[in-house]
Amino acid sequence: MIKPGRPVKDISIKKDDSIQSIFDAMSESGGFESRNLAEGLDILYAMNQDKACLKFLSFVAAVTSTGLRGIIRDMLKNKMFDVVITTCGALDHDIARYFSNYLEGSFTLDDNELVEKNIHRLGNVLVPMESYGPLIEEKMQAFLEKVYKSGKKEMSTFEITRMIGENLGESSFLYWAYKNNIPVIVPGIMDGAVGSQIWFFTQKHSDFKLNVAADSDLLSGLIFKAKKSGALMIGGGISKHHTLWWNQYRDGLDYVVYITTAQEFDGSLSGALVREAISWGKVTQKAKQTTIHAEATTILPFLYSALLAKLK
Description:
This protein has helices spanning 19-26, 33-49, 68-77, 88-99, 111-116, 133-149, 157-166, 173-179, 193-204, 213-223, 237-247, 296-311, and strands spanning 53-59, 83-86, 103-104, 119-122, 125-128, 154-155, 184-185, 209-210, 228-234, 253-260, 283-293. The protein has one domain (19-99, 131-311): Deoxyhypusine synthase (Deoxyhypusine Synthase, 3-Layer(aba) Sandwich), CATH 3.40.910.10. It is 44% helix and 17% strand. The model has no long low-confidence stretch (mean pLDDT 96). The protein is globular and about 65 Å long. Helix 3 links the parallel strand 1 (53-59) and strand 2.
């Protein structure tokens, strides 16, 4: 039997209202995504306060080409998460933007003209060619050569990301993951510039190996010991699925916030709501969970700000 909820209340904002009070008002607004956003804040707060919870952060690479990289960096700097799962492009962008700059652009620019000027377009972000491929090649070959000469002949992806972070500085999210001993796992590491450079390195050093199974050893050790687990998942694809996949081995996530623009009608993983994962045992039946249908670079700064205020 369906029970009606609380009365819908209008949102009223005064000039001195805090961001937390605005989120409180949204939680009683009735609709539509505002309630999901407010629920997301409550879930992230509860997850952060639960000391028995193993906390995952997963995100797609594209967001790190934007200013949202700073929010991800600060969340890791503040030790809000224990494990990161992402894609190879996030490593590419972190290296490229540490040593160089991306530029503001537009979705409507002429791509034929851009290619003539040696500029890549990522949505409305412009990536000069010299800031990407050649730069990442130079830096990755130097990083790998250094560890190889120290006697390291085999590395997992979390060791690769730790190596990169050790060679970057405070503006980098990989640096803070390294600094705070937060493993960054990249299940699809060969799908990007960093992965290509690992392959190129093996052509010169045939005894150097990438051991992706070692990432599973690390994850299994964490998952099987965890009393509870939770995740903030930004975007879909392999980073989302790997987070869900590993948590099925401990009967599912207990806290989940998912931010996506994808739709579920095509059966895609990226469009699947969090509740669909309950049927697979990847999310517990009693989990605190919500799916926020929104664009992450717009929403996450406000969500993070409200979380900081709530945590005081």
